Amino acid sequence: MKLVISDKNTSSWSMRPWLLLKHFGIPFEEVTIRFNRPDTKERMLHYSPSGKVPCLIGDGGEAVWESLAIMETIAEQYPQHAMWPRDGVARAHARSFSTEMHAGFADLRAKMPMEICAHAPGKGALAEMQTNVARVEAIWGECLEKSGGPFLFGEFGIADAMFAPVVMRFNSYAPALRDVSRAYAERITAPAVAEWIDGVKAEKAGDVAR
Questions:
Q1: For the packed helices 179-188 and 158-173, what is the interaxial angle rounded to 10 degrees?
Q2: Confidence of residue 2 (pLDDT cuts 50, 70, 90)
Q3: Which domains does the chain have, with CATH numbers?
Q4: pTM score of the predicted model
Q5: In angstroms, rounded to a whole number, what is the distance separating the alpha carbons of residues 126 and 93?
Q6: What backbone torsions phi and psi does residue 108 show, to the nearest 5 degrees?
Q7: What is the pLDDT of residue 210?
Q8: Residue 60 has pLDDT above 60, yes or no
Q9: How far are the Cα atoms of 17, 52, 102, 136, 140 from residue 71, in angstroms, in the given order?
Q10: How many angstroms separate the CA atoms of 150 and 166, rounded?
Q11: Would you place residue 198 in the very low, low, confident or very high pLDDT band (cuts 50, 70, 90)?
């Protein structure tokens, strides 16, 4: 199957299903369509009915778009992996927090956009974002206390993939975080996340060479 994504430096939605596939060792072909190119929209529409990425193209050519829908589909296709918690109550909470991340946190998205190469400590201290940051920390704290870690629901899963781009934002803008949040953010930079960051560096090097 193919996963169609865009710029690794800024495409937080692309990052999420990519991490899930990489973490669980599921083979896929990576197709990258860069933002702000003359043919960007045309190429995205070739794969995705919404004209946006990420988009998963199955072995039969069927398209699934939107990050959560893609990850739900992957979880169904590979039930041997506990991408959602096996426990029903924990699974419901994981879905709730993941959907909250998908739909909310408008100030954080607008004022702290994911730009992995950015380094702007202090920007995360703006007052209008503190409510969003506090809510993220509350979610992480609750999940880690109940599960015992190391990730939100024990082992790495969809909920962690949903919050991984937030960790990238926190790394760039350095809002004040509690110790438990900082420790979780450090653990998120696991092999798959490190590989994505390496991809950002390669992407930037290619841009310089153009």
A1: 110
A2: very high
A3: 2-81 (3.40.30.10), 88-192 (1.20.1050.10)
A4: 0.94
A5: 29
A6: -60, -45
A7: 59
A8: yes
A9: 6, 16, 12, 21, 20
A10: 17
A11: very high
